[in-house]
Amino acid sequence: RAPKIFEEVTNFYKLKKLIGKGVYGTVVSAKCLSTGQSVAIKHVSNFNDCEYDLTKIIREVMVLQSLQKIPEGKYGSFFTKLIDIIVPKNQDTSYFNDVFLVLEKE
């Protein structure tokens, strides 16, 4: 069962199952309610408490965004695509500590 914080994304995605949990986040599989696309949703928490963690998540997002520019084909199909970034509504936008990365799942 996914953690309670995942309720923030249930307006857009139907959560299926917990894929994994690590030091920097929890990942669940889900299905987009509007398109039916299968996705993986990574919840990263407490990253704003430490400058290193904040830098790490910003770097991860930047790398994922730059990989989206690679065309499908020889190399493009090897990279996970970042579909969306969701910040829970109940957080102050000047200092938020949770973020959801919605990733393509094949």
What does this structure look like?
By secondary structure, this protein is of the alpha+beta class. Helices cover 16% and strands 34% of the residues. The protein contains 1 helix and 5 strands, in the order E-E-E-H-E-E. The protein has a 5-stranded antiparallel sheet with strand order 1-2-3-5-4, with helices on one face. A hairpin with a 4-residue loop joins strand 1 and strand 2. The two termini are 21 Å apart.
Low-confidence stretches: none
Task: Let me know the number of strands.
Answer: 5
Shape: globular
Order of strands across the main sheet:
1-2-3-5-4
Query: What is the helix fraction of residues, given as a range?
Result: 10-25%
* Largest sheet data: 5 strands, antiparallel
**Count of helical regions:** 1
Q: In sequence order, what are the helices and strands, one letter per element? A: EEEHEE
Strand content: 25-35%
What structural category characterises the helix and strand content?
A: alpha+beta
Radius of gyration: 14 Å
Distance between the termini: 21 Å
Average pLDDT metric: 81
